[in-house]
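Field notebook, page 373. I keep forgetting to write these up properly, so this time I am using the form the group agreed on. The chain and the ligand, cytidine-5'-triphosphate, are recorded exactly as supplied. Prediction of the bound pose follows.
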Amino acid sequence: MIAAIIAAAGSGERFGAAIPKALIQLGDRTLIEHAVSAISSVADQIIVTAPSGYEKEIQTLVGDGITVVTGGATRSESVRIGLSKVSADAEYVLIHDAARALASPDLAKRVVAALKSGDVAVIPGLAQTDTVKIVDASGIVTSTPDRAAMRRVQTPQGFTYKLISQAHAQSGEATDDAALVESLGKPVRVIEGEERAIKITTPADMATALQFLGKSTNFKSGVGVDAHHFEAGRQLWLAGLLWPDQDGVEGHSDGDVAAHAICDALFAASGLGDLGSNFGTNKPEYKGASGTTLLKETLALVEKSGYAISHVSVQVIGNRPKIGSRRAEAIASLSTALGGAEVALLATTTDGMGLTGEGKGIAAIASALIYSK
Ligand code: CTP
Ligand code: MG
């Protein structure tokens, strides 16, 4: 029979989340659930080492058929605790990192096949593409080992139960289990690894992992347009700024066409209706609301629906005011209202044609790109 230990007791310090790394969600499942499915087709017994305090949560995620134990202070310690639970009749033991959540079941199968063909220790590895340097404590290179002979090794690593028990008997510390076997002078076979079996260490690795899942971040785009007629005697608000000595425009709110076009672009992208359905005349509380208030409210709705803003672009169409000299100020105002999102602001006239070209009002057209969080 084949036993498997999944090391999942780390805190994920380099990842920097509030929860242990094994509990982080990747696509539709947590890392620990992915790791279990990578080895469950070959293992008769599965033991998971959990961070102290998270045993129950992990047990619930992986189900009753799996043994969950509290891990140790180091990875090697955790593996030893797992080994102590391995059934006496196990022939082989696979040791896998929860952090290598996307290793495929095929990789585990190939490790087992190599064990069955007579190897006593089998580990997946990939060619080293970067040149590696050995440096001294002051950062001076002392040597350049031959890259061609190097392998970046992964898990699951497979061993005969007898050999891995012996290797861990001395309470040695190493960053992988094969190293302890090597120190016994036993042969460790490297088989072809998988790029998708990357060790998820930092948040940046999640983007790579999502690509392997075929779930690259879900982007949506939207377009919005707004136009208002000039109305003498009103203040002009545009792109989050007050433009003194300019006629304002008529409207239910402050008439900021740039802000309104952006709101509609965001509503279009997120499928949440439009400016009218969210803040229209049937919502008297928004009468006279500033453009920046509406941007803030729109952002809150977009975020509530599970999206974040990647980028917003808005073009003001009209003869006046001239945007150029206040562009940076306007971008800052719009961006602040949108929680710091990247904003582009452009302006154009229409060569004397159409309503805004005739000087009757101002229009704006915006586009927004949002992505699922
Ligand atoms: N691990 C473990 N017990 C420990 C430390 C680590 O079981 N005491 C596990 C981790 O949960 C992980 C694997 O060993 O699945 C590889 O470790 P690593 O990627 O370094 O994870 P963490 O130790 O959690 O991360 P960090 O080093 O950034 O804290
Ligand atoms: Mg670690």
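OBSERVATIONS:
- DSSP finds twelve helices and 19 strands in the chain.
- The two ends are 42 Å apart (CA to CA).
FOLLOW-UP: compare against the apo run.
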